[in-house]
Amino acid sequence: MFGQFLAQSGSVVDRIQSAAEYFQNPELTSSDVIWLCCAVAAVAAAVIAAKLVFNYRMSRAVYLPAADVRDPKKILQTLDLCIVRRSKLEFKIVSRQNSGQIVSGMPEAVRNGRIIVAMSIAFSANQEKLKGERVHCYFKVRQGKHTAFFNFLSNIDAVRAGEDGFLELAIALPDVLVAGQKRNFLRMDPPDDFILEISLWPEYIDNATDWKTNLDEFPPPLLSNVDKGSKDLRIRDISASGARLIIDKAALNKAGLAPAKGSRLMLLLCLWDPVELNELALWMICRVQKYVSASDTPKVDMGVQFIAWSQIKNPEKRELAWTILDQEDGEVPPLGNWVAKRYLEEYRKSLIAE
Description:
Radius of gyration: 31 Å
Largest sheet: 8 strands, antiparallel
CATH class of the largest domain: Mainly Beta
Distance between the termini: 44 Å
Strand content: 25-35%
CATH architecture of the largest domain: Roll
Number of helices: 6
Low-confidence stretches: 1-13, 56-65
């Protein structure tokens, strides 16, 4: 009877007024009172259960900080998340002069106040000299569609061979995890639509010491993707300090280019800015840091580090003014800005998609 009465009522206010009038009805039976008590108890039980479920989920939620982490427990929690998510730990030695090489490993555990990092290179006795070196480490942790970046300074406490014979480092736990990462560590795989041109030349030198500056003296590039249908030369994993190039072997051989680790090339990179609606053209002198040419693939995987860069400041003169980069923390500022903007755009899209 009472359920039918509620179903027939209109708004919440109408139901309350009707309920008040209903309970003043002398014909109210004990079964109606029992039904009402059961309904109230069911609602209360549902609210309590929902609260318990919410509290349980919050207690099980993974902690993903958005600012510097100084609490030792939260530092451990964040590093544990890095290990669980199988995130790489990238670092470079900062205690050595002119040591700008970035290496990476997989953090496997935290033991005795140290982060155990497994490297993908075989252990050798001369690597023991790494003990005591100061390193700047970077990593990221992901939860759902959100990613947080951190970096910290620490020391290599121990160097040893792992069970598989590969190099294993023990890095001291830091006192603080700094939120964010340097732009030359911020990398992205740019959409092909944003890459207007990639062209490669050998390293052209004037007077045996300086790079050429007059663009009118440059011959056509030996390799380029100007043909929109061409997939001979593609760029991947770009940052303010370097890039990864995927090159067709046949096209590379036809162009007469024979890059090797340590060799140098000149790269023209033209990028589209979808917000500013303009083109960013950058010339870079690159050092080949990685060159992989497997026999079972038609592509070459080449990683390059930028060692100098230039833009045309005066289009009428068509001259370049080269800026040499610091090999410790060197980055191409306009490229760093471009990558950071595209990264933020993708991050905002991920938030909207949720």
